UniProtKB/TrEMBL annotation:
The keyword Cell division appears for this protein: no
Keyword entries, A-Z: DNA-binding, Transcription, Transcription regulation
GO molecular function, one term: DNA binding
Record-annotated HTH arsR-type domain positions: 20-118
Biological classification of the source: Archaea, Nitrososphaerota, Candidatus Caldarchaeales, Candidatus Caldarchaeaceae, Candidatus Caldarchaeum
Domain of life, per lineage: Archaea
Protein's name according to its UniProt entry: ArsR family transcriptional regulator
Length: 184
């Protein structure tokens, strides 16, 4: 048998996402809603109005928006942050618990940014090792509480816990003022 093609298999992305969260994000409307709610808390009415700006495809009735909000809430991607009573009506305000970046990276991304990736990789490896040493006990305790994924054979529980720590730390960092010249 002669080999026609072979390429080294290399993991270039790490995704920590529950199946419920993945299902919630499979719908472009819910992804748009999550994006809007990551900017500021909104009521169903405000969200319905904002979605109309994205075009006909996103022009939905408030009942439809409520349904999609419920799915996002059940997945843990959004939460209820405020309830107001106004003129006999109750307004509920929701906000994102996660920020979704749904961009397609250019094909030459790794080539253009390989030095930045290498630099970051070295720093992150040091941070991972420091986390694994300094917080060994709570990481192991949390990892032992995880159940295997019903869709795969992976049992990288400690890696998952460390990745969740890093992702939450990144989220906390980008929410701080003056991060990456954020537009207000």
């Amino acid at each position: 048998m002669s080999r026609i093609f072979e390429k080294e298999a290399k993991v270039t992305h790490v995704i920590t996402l529950s199946v419920d969260k993945a299902r919630a994000l499979e719908n472009p409307l819910r992804a748009a809603m999550l994006d809007l709610l990551s900017e500021k808390p909104m009521s169903v009415e405000e969200l319905t109005k904002e979605l109309k700006r994205f075009g006909k495809k996103y022009n939905k009735a408030p009942t439809t928006v409520r349904h999609h909000l419920d799915l996002l809430k059940k997945s843990g991607l959004i939460e209820l942050v405020k309830v107001e009573e106004t003129g006999g009506a109750v307004l509920k305000y929701y906000a994102a618990r996660a920020r979704f970046y749904g961009y397609e990276t250019p094909q030459d991304f790794e080539e253009k940014l390989k030095e930045a990736i290498k630099f970051s990789s070295d720093k992150i490896l040091n941070l991972i090792n420091e986390l694994a040493t300094k917080y060994k006990e709570p990481i192991e305790k949390t990892a032992n509480q995880l159940k295997p994924c019903p869709y795969c054979s992976s049992k990288h529980f400690k890696e998952y816990v460390i990745l969740e720590i890093l992702q939450r730390a990144i989220a906390e960092a980008i929410n701080r003022p003056k991060t990456l010249e954020r537009k207000t």
